[in-house]
Specification:
It is globular, with a radius of gyration of 22 Å. Helix content is about 40%, strand content about 30%. The chain is an alpha/beta fold and about 180 residues long. The protein starts with a helix and ends with a strand.
């Protein structure tokens, strides 16, 4: 009897291990791999204050935030210097607006708007627009403008990562919802 119960437990353990393996394989199969430009470009027709472009790094912070948030969502984002949309999955992003009004003493009024296009093997399959506004959050009086703008692109990175799980064409993300 004793040996028989051990066999049942061992078989049950093997079944549980097999079930875990199948779940891991299924999760890996559904995970996507996306290429994103390391420094997200500003749109050619965007009117963005020179001090934002010179002093802040929202173009790089956005892609880094997207990479981190995508990993948490089960996707892999590879940052590339030059984006090629012809093969695989590529996410073309552009910063189309960035506003930096106010300051630590008067109150921050910052926002960033990003447009994105998802390509699969050269074909555009979905696009979105995302916007986030920030007053600086907790301790805003101790934050500089670039730090508050970083908060907006970090939130946009999380919004885009969630969108990549199930990309809907024409989606409005972040504070546009």
């Amino acid at each position: 009897m004793r040996g028989n119960s051990r066999n049942i437990i061992q078989r049950g353990g093997r079944k549980a291990a097999l079930a875990c393996l199948l779940l891991a394989v299924a999760a890996g199969a559904s995970a996507g791999e996306f290429k994103v430009q390391r420094a997200v470009p500003y749109a050619g027709d965007a009117i963005i204050a020179g001090n934002i472009k010179r002093e802040c790094t929202i173009d790089q912070q956005l892609s880094d935030a997207l990479r981190r948030a995508s990993a948490d969502a089960g996707n892999q984002v590879t940052l590339v210097e030059s984006l090629d949309t012809a093969s695989g999955q590529a996410l073309k992003l552009e910063i189309v607006d960035a506003q930096s009004a106010g300051n630590a003493w008067m109150g921050h009024h910052k926002s960033v708007t990003v447009k994105g296009w998802l390509f699969r093997d050269g074909q555009e399959v979905a696009k979105f627009v995302a916007r986030r506004n920030s007053g600086g959050g907790f301790g805003a009086g101790f934050k500089g403008s670039c730090s508050v703008l970083d908060r907006t692109v970090n939130a946009i990175g999380r919004d885009i990562a969630a969108w990549l799980v199930n990309p809907a064409d024409g989606a409005q993300l972040g504070d546009l919802r």
